[in-house]
Amino acid sequence: MKKLLFFLCLGALTSCVVTKEQATERTNLTLEEKVGQTCQITLDAVAQTDAQGRTLVPLKLDTNKLTEALVKYKVGSILNVSWHTLTRAQWQEITQTIHSYYTSGRIKVPVLYGIDAIHGVNYTQGATLFPQEIGLAATWNPSLAAEFGRITAYETRASGIPWNFSPVLDLGRNPLWSRTFETLGEDPYLVSQMGAAIIKGYQGTNPRVIDSLHVLSCMKHFVGYSAAASGRDRTPAWIPDKYMKELYLPSFKSAVQAGAQTVMINSGTVNGIPGHVNKSLIQYTLKDEWKFPGFAVSDWEDFNMLHTVHRVAPNLKTAYEQAFNAGVDMSMVPLSPDYKTYCELMLQSVNEANITSARLDDAVNRIYRTKEAVGLFDLHQPVLSNYTAFGSSQHKAAAKQTALESITLLKNNGTLPLKTNTKFLVAGPCSDNLVYLNGAWSHTWQGMDTSFNTKGCKTIVQAFQEKYGVQCLFSKGLELYKDKEVEQSRFVSLEDYIKKLDEVETVVLCLGEVPATEKPGDIRSLHLDSKQLELAKMAYAKHKNVIIVLVEGRPRIIRDIVDPAGAIVQCYLPGDYGAEALVELLSGEKNFSGKLPYTYPKYDGVIEYYDRPRSVDRSNVGDFAAFNPEWPFGFGLHYGEVSYEHLKSNEVLSENSPWEITVDVINQSNREIDEVVQLYVGDEFASMVPAGEQLKRFLKVKIPAGQTKEVRFVINKEDLMFVNEAGEWVFEPGTFNFSIGTKTGSVLFR
Ligand code: BGC
After folding, report:
1. For position 5, what pLDDT does the model report?
2. Ligand 1, CB cutoff 6 Å, lining residues
3. Is omega for the bond preceding 274 within 30 degrees of 0, making it cis?
């Protein structure tokens, strides 16, 4: 049989269809093999180490450790890479050696390799690095999200890896959270649309037969991880049932509908329940109600954390039983010797019937079917050198286009496009280092190691100097660093900065954040540090036109430097081609079309969202205590103006008739504009406090100079439902107000 498959698959880039014979093999697994399938270890656990136990560089597999893990403990999955970015040849060797245990018959079920290729296959040298998810969201362009997914899947496969721990579908509602940049922003509809597009890009058209140009996606992190009240990573969140259903669950539900095959569980706690024991969410909502067919993997060490950190289990064995019985199918254990303990304790638990064989079989079947879906049982795995489009110019162009459509113009008093008839100065801590453009999860976990930077990719100052030569002066002025995990900054050659300020009219000042994620990315205040603000103030004091360029994973408070700025541009973390895109936008060669995927805060103590209830807008003294962000959700300027006219809608509707809204979008300028047309709807009265407005539809349209485009949206009753006191989704007839751009209207549902 295996021989037959071999010939069928030989030379092909597509996966083979699974045979009946293979599908039934899973029932013949021994108990040890079944338990092994639920165990995931990190690559370090099977890599050669030095005398101090550190993984050797260059990374090499340790055959004895690998054999012990795969043959003795029958481990079913491996993840990650150490503090490296490997070449494709290294990946080929690693993944083929691992797969050879299956092809040679030493193990019955192939090993599933997973990696965090979250903005491109960031642990493979020469890969195409896109903007991070927050920037992707700012494009408001699901086709670009799908293209990002397709290219990343291709390059992940070209590295021999079939499973990507992406996308993050957590709602970016607390900007303090270090992983805000990994999210698609604050709005459940935007996240759902963009997330589903990424998943389709990753997995291709048929999620149960994923060919070798695509990968398994993994929805992260189910659910509520981003809502930590303190903003610090993996700390408690409290989410009432209504808001869990209305805000946090929809992106996961739409991902399941889009065919997502795996899910990773929230490391934190919600309402006092650790994500990994939340049976109500994992088993009942995700698996039973939504019919999620794939498997759930834990996050890093999270089975153990139930005992060691969250303290809901008095010992490890109970912790494993709790998580497994709540519906988590695979444990990212992932270290050695912990994985041996895991396998041994799990065996005991099954033998003692603390975990039923039905539950174990359910998990194994889910894992097994997923391995089948991604073609792992094929003896002949794709030849990596066949992936000739890896890192190609087409892929790079797509990454640059994503950056172009993402970078958002927040203010412009005429300073942009950049006047380049005289010299200008590029300065600031984020101006001369590629790692700032990529952020964490780039070449290494925290993204600070420059040694693996993609060759030929430019920093901001390099991109300017390439275009403008000696017209572009450079002085960094300040550098950022971390001391004991805390963000710090220090002035560098300040005299040079001050001297160069005198030589120019315009300053492009690049401010932002040190790359970081998870715990190392925790911050105590959203304020951008005062020295960065001082750099701007020094330029303002000399009456310069200052263009503030923000290179930041989360919106940092910059209130004190907004008013005097000539222009402000949000880059997010735009990736390897972000600098080139920025130069094309600032020079006016290309037009801006990015829109904020979050509400940009003005004050630290008041974190606000656009879909606030009306009470937030009440104010007794001026705008004190009223909604007053720095910039609203969905905001972004262009070169040139767009106006909205002729808004048409039904006025009265019966509950079940579709609601149709059309509007003319007019490009009043003499250059092409890509406009994101956004429809917001708010319930006038409801039995529970309604959101003032919610995003219900959006469409990015290209409008040639001076032309008009008609845009049409259709809304259904389902779009207007909310969760009532009993926790049920309901539609209440009545008046709904709506707006598109500057135009507003209302409709009565009888
Ligand atoms: C992160 C996950 C990631 C996993 C594997 C965890 O610490 O929370 O998002 O997929 O590590 O690298």
Report:
1. 35
2. 79-80, 116, 165, 220, 264, 267, 299-300, 518
3. no
